[in-house]
Amino acid sequence: MFIIGLTGGIGSGKSTIAEHFSALGVPCIDADQTARDVVQPGEPALTAITQHFGPEVIQPDGTLDRRQVREKIFADPAAREWLNNLLHPLIRQRMVQQCQQAQGPYCILMVPLLFENHLQSLVHRTLVIDIDEATQIRRTMLRDNTTEEQVKAIIAAQCPRQQRLALADDVIQNGDEVTATQRQQAVYALHQTYLQLAAQHQSHG
Questions:
Q1: Which residues make up the binding site for ATP (predicted)?
Q2: Known binder of ligand: residue 72?
Q3: Which pTM value belongs to this model?
């Protein structure tokens, strides 16, 4: 399967772009959703987390209390490392499986921290959704009902914009000046390119 890694900073509109690809019949796999799936009740990872952090990280309905876990790993770098070591390989393995099982000419793997977590090896090509920082801050504050300081802290923890653009094979601009039609046209143009690349990939495979 030919895999496109879709990424971008917080608030860049990755989901919107992924929806345009979905509308063209391209399967889209969301790393954030996969990360939620591996800690569902009944999953081995949830059992391991409960044993490590104690029963207080489980909510009455049996699901993981993300806030509790976040507080624990925020206060303790060793706990964060333990959790990452547990979850990252599981998430990676699950994403690879989902990509292999996807039905379509190629698939999109949407990974917010593609470059930060050095996951480029999972994909054949990278697509970055790009907006300027001021727009990023404003959109995220509106969407997540959060403060400017909090958004700036998240941006600071992510790959710098220039570095992300330098690592990208393809870029879609998604600032406020870009209309919905322009977005769709940009996606459609890339879709044609990806279809050709996917066909070449299959003929070589």
A1: 11-16
A2: no
A3: 0.90
